[in-house]
Model the fold of this input.
Amino acid sequence: MEKCPKHVVHYMHAFLDGEITNEEEQIMNEHLKLCEECREIFEELEQTVTLFKGVDVVEAPAGFVDGVTARLPKQMIKKGPNKWFRQHPFMVAAAMFLLLMSASFFSSFENEQQFSFTKQPNIVVEGETVVVPAGETVVGDLVVKNGDLRIEGEVDGNVTVIKGSKYMASTAVITGSSEEINEIFDWLWYKMKSVAKDIIPASKEQKLENE
Amino acid sequence: MDELINKRVKEVLHGNQEAFEEIVIHFQHRLYQVCYRMLNNAAEAEDIAQEAFVRAYVNLETYDQKRKFSTWLYRIATNLCIDRIRKKKPDYYLDATVPGTEGLDMYSQIATDHQLPEEEVEKMEMKDRVQYEVNRLPDKYRTIIILRYMEDLQLQEIADILEMPLGTVKTRVHRGREALRQQMGSM
Done:
């Protein structure tokens, strides 16, 4: 029995992997014609491959997909924002700042229950009601917080009532603007306006000039 | 197809969990089949294949979208299967009777490395026989033969899945094929 060249077995596998060159295939076929033993091995290999390739496809059982869905962790949904937070630390800091600021701001509106008013020489206080008596003239702005205001006389300035009501007698005169603040947005607007007034004194001066 | 899958992956990364369901539907049979062939047990295959999808979902951020999604998914599944096989090995129920034998328990099988008697093997239906022979292959050939012939993957793809040089994959396919030929010799 002649000795089979080693590379023939290698060629067989290359053939089965579809990676054999024409030349190699020719050499292999030449040899297989002559060598019964190698031919047998080759046939067995081919048979094995055919058998394993042809095995039935196995399919996942019904309910497989639902099973996966049921096992998915729920917190993954948070992952998106988390990633965003990590990438934009400055935005997060700014957002936190605004959140905390607004929280303290709104709570200050809710919690300030104390009755207070602008001290003016000629006003009268009855319980939680500030009264501008008839015939009297208050010079300057008047602010009343958490209380009511009854005007029977004159106010030479702006009148603001925060969380309270304003009653005007028929004799009442207000030379400036007058507003009542009961809602949070009014409050916000009022705060913004007063901050703006503080920051830009020019608007006040202008007013004085106009007067 | 790959483009569609990558689109779904992006949607999942943006928080759309339902998009992942489509990925599962698309790959369920292929992934289940690998697990079934590797583990030779339907319940375990379902468990591991589902676990593979869960791992893929949880670690989706680490998936490199320039590569093939199926490769990444197969890698997760085959690794889980190999882990399971390793863990399982020592705990055969030694008292359990070997199927098809009269009173032969697993103690009698230890020395013969989990082989069935020849006449049992010969009585098997061919599809069972194929599964049986695959499971007798050494671990390092088994995965490769399953991916090559049962999943019909290209050698390069197998190399990517198993993170091995292409040459190693080729050698193992050759050896695995040769081992199978010898095992099937008694056909």
Q: What stands out?
A: The two ends of chain A are 127 Å apart (CA to CA). The CA atoms of residues 21 and 119 of chain A lie 106 Å apart. Chain A has eight helices and eleven strands. Chain A touches chain B through 33 residues (CB under 8 Å).
